[in-house]
Amino acid sequence: MTEYRWLLPSVLLGSGAERGPGRVRRSARDWFVDITLFVVTSLFTLIILSELEGDPPPLMMVEQVIGAVSCAGIWLRRRWPVGFALALVPVSWFSALVSGPTLVALFTVAVHRPFRHVALVGGLYVLCVLPYAVLRPDPELGVVGLMVLGVSLYLALVAWGMFIRARRQLVLSLRDRAERASEEAKRLERERIAREMHDVLAHRLSLLSVHAGALAFRRDMPREDVSRAAEAIRHSAHQALQDLRAVIGVLRHGDDGDAPQPPQPTLADLPGLVEESRKAGTPVRLALRLADPAAVPDALGRTAYRIAQEGLTNARKHAPGSPVRVEVDGAPGDGLTVVLRNPVRAPARQLAHVVPFGGDASGPAALPIPGSGTGLIGLAERVSLAGGRLEHGVSAADAPGAGEDEFRLRAWLPWPAAAAA
Rounded to whole angstroms, what are the CA distances from 390 to 191, 305, 413? Predict the structure, then answer.
């Protein structure tokens, strides 16, 4: 019974899901429309009043009061559209002066309320046409002609109002879809910038950590080595500030395109990245097996650079001092392959959360360190956006009798043949 208790007020007052029965704020356009409708219905009522003949004076007085109250009720149509329309039903049986307000009320319900309310109000108005035609027959149209005219007019108003309602809902739906698309674009842009921040700053800060650690634990370092380490720290800090300033500039001023703001690294900057890691104490061997490295597209080279950067950063964090081998191979049409491998030392095996290379991820894994895997997750998203594949994990060393397992990071990126032209 509780759910039915709210049905009658909802229908009478029109307090559906779209708009409650509270105070309605009118815009300038709403005020113009309401004033225009009030003036038009008032003039229409006065014209009909001037043509009424033969009614007794008491009935004429009642008709005038009903017509004036109905015209004044136009101002309530936005707050209670269904209630105002239903209030005109009893007087629509006999009063000719409510014709204008009746048409406005039916049209308002058709525009602002669901079909169930429109069907209720429209059905009652159609039923009122028969007694009105009998009580006030038109000398030219007759009873049948007046009924056909009244029903046709009501149906036309309902169709027009429902068309306007459907059009407004379509516009709102398109606007909402555009807003959601805009929010999605902003979210993707924030994720792209977050990946850039992680890839760049993690590499710079890891270099700072390595050099600062050397100064902290090697108190007996020669003055020349201390000076070189301090210069490396200063250079890395300066580069980190520049990278951070560039990212903040993108966040503050926005980005007009999908590509990151220049200057951005390409595959030609990979030897410089390797040299930085060597200065930080990581033995790195670079094997760049490309016929023409300059033919690699900038976007593809940038992704390959970020893969190598993330791999070197992880090697410094989880296997400090281990030699790292970087291999880049590929050709247009075959794709670009980037492979990084380094021995997994005992401390790294205890800290790194990895799975056997090419094996089953459901197998046993070591305890992860806090925050481990974040860079690889972002790297996998970057490679996936580029249409490539990323694999990482521990496998046995290629050299027989090496006695150490290797951590491998392997990425394949598509390199269209047309890009080489």
Answer: 19, 14, 9
Whether the CB-CB separation of 314 and 369 falls below 8 Å is answered with no
Q: 3-class SS at 340? A: strand
Helix (H) or strand (E) holding 331: strand 324-331
pLDDT of 250-306, one tens digit each? 565 554 444 445 467 888 888 888 888 887 778 899 998 887 788 888 888 888 988
Residue 405: phi and psi, rounded to 5, are -80, 165
Angle, helices 142-217/115-135, rounded to nearest 10 degrees: 160
Pull the structure tokens for residue 336. Answer: 């670009």
Q: What pLDDT does 412 receive?
A: 94
Rounded to whole angstroms, how far apart are CA atoms 313 and 320? Answer: 10
pLDDT, tens only, 143-159 = 888 888 888 888 998 99
Q: What's the rounded Cα separation, in Å, for the pair 292 and 130?
A: 90
pTM value is 0.47
230 CA to centre of own chain: 46
- What is the C-alpha separation between 214 and 235, in angstroms, rounded? 16
d(CA 388, CA 394): 21
Judge residue 277's burial from the number of C-beta atoms within 10 Å of its C-beta, 0-12 exposed, 13-18 middle, 19 or more buried: buried
Which candidate, 255, 329, 378, places its Cα nearest to that of 264?
A: 255
Task: Give every CB contact of residue 392 below 8 A, 6+ residues apart in sequence.
Answer: 354, 357, 376, 407, 408, 409, 410
List domains and CATH numbers for the chain.
Answer: 2-136 (no CATH), 269-421 (3.30.565.10)
pLDDT of residue 367: 36
Mean pLDDT in residue range 384-401: 76
The whole-number pLDDT of residue 250 equals 59
Give the highest mean pLDDT range of 26-35, 169-178, 219-228, 251-260.
Answer: 169-178
| Residue 408, helix vs strand vs coil | strand
Inter-residue contact 342 to 315 (CB < 8 Å): yes
Joined together, the tokens standing for residue 363 give 């197998």
